[in-house]
Design a protein that fits this description.
By secondary structure, this protein is of the alpha+beta class. The chain has one domain: 2-Layer Sandwich (YaeB-like fold), CATH 3.30.2310. Helix content is 35%, strand content 33%. A five-stranded mixed β-sheet has the order 1-5-4-3-2. A hairpin with a 3-residue loop joins strand 3 and strand 4. The protein is globular.
Length: 86
């Protein structure tokens, strides 16, 4: 069964503010891969972000998400520039 993807309000605001229409299209194509196998494409985070996952996008962006295995939902929590992430 495929996962459903939900984008949180803060992540959606960043998406619209930072990405033009073409980059938004590529963003949605990228996160579509997560529907099938969210743990294969992403990388688990450690430390204070343990329990969250990171998906690299366009080399300079990081998509932070959480997987709800019970509900089969992926929550996109944030979209950060790589300099904000470190």
């Amino acid at each position: 069964m495929d996962y459903k993807i939900e984008i949180t309000e803060p992540a959606e605001r960043k998406l619209k503010k930072r990405f033009d229409k073409e980059l938004q299209r590529r963003f949605f194509n990228k996160i579509d891969k997560l529907k099938i196998a969210p743990t294969i494409y992403g990388k688990p985070l450690r430390g204070p972000l343990a329990g969250k996952w990171e998906l690299k996008f366009e080399r300079r962006w990081r998509i932070i998400y959480v997987i709800d295995e019970n509900e089969k939902v992926i929550y996109i929590e944030s979209i950060l520039h790589k300099n904000e992430f470190t």
